[in-house]
Amino acid sequence: MSTDGWKNFGKYGASLDPGNVHGKIALGQALEDALERMIIEGGIKSPVTTRRGRLARMKYLTTHKGGPQALADAGITASRATIRRWAKGTQTPKPASLEAIDTAYWNLRARNVMANPGAFKQHLNRAGQGTKIEIHPINQEVVDEKRRRDNLRVRRFQVRYIWDEAVDAMVAGDVDKLEDIWDDVIAELDSDWGAYTYVSHIGLGA
Q: Domain of life of the organism in this record (predicted)?
């Protein structure tokens, strides 16, 4: 099946809205958004300005590989002795250092999650239950009125079995593979699949 359901996409104005994109692009963006949510929701909840939040971040940064480099990349130039005092809670970093510690923590957490995409795959697979996908059709306000499609609406359904390959494709930046996967997703829409080759947004319930 070719995903080019609209072989002349843009001929009647659809491409005038930059938000109207091929489903493979929107799927990649949706995966990145879901990954970001997982990183944040699974991270330290207490703000870095609280003692609890500060110590938790310093523990992560001083016990995980790459922590010292993450601190350096965030602009921390403090000595090892100062960093040990921060980690023990015997010295409080200045506001600028607190901000840098927060940046270093989130950057390192994101890097570690990306290095082990298995957790993200499990998050999407949900023990075989899959993840709900919400497909928003293109914005037709920019399309010539006579060429607009009356049957386009937001479609919602559960998607299983594609997530391992989808995550691998996202990590690798393999747009061709994402296109194949998008083929499989919209095949669930039967005869309507071609109308959702291009979309305005894809949301994942994860």
A: Bacteria
Give me the phi and psi of 50, to 5 degrees please.
-95, 155
Question: Are residues 99 and 47 in contact, defined by beta-carbon separation less than 8 angstroms?
Answer: no
**Tokens (6 digits) for 95:** 């506001």
Angle at 117 between CA 60 and CA 68, to 5 degrees: 25
Which residues have C-beta within 8 Å of that of residue 52, sequence separation ≥ 6?
46
Percent of the chain with pLDDT over 70: 84
pLDDT for 73-125, tens place per residue? 999 999 999 999 999 999 999 999 999 999 999 999 999 999 999 999 999 99
Query: Do residues 93 and 75 make contact, with C-beta atoms less than 8 angstroms apart?
Result: no
Per the CB < 8 A criterion, the answer to whether 76 and 101 are in contact is yes
Q: What's the whole-model pTM score?
A: 0.82
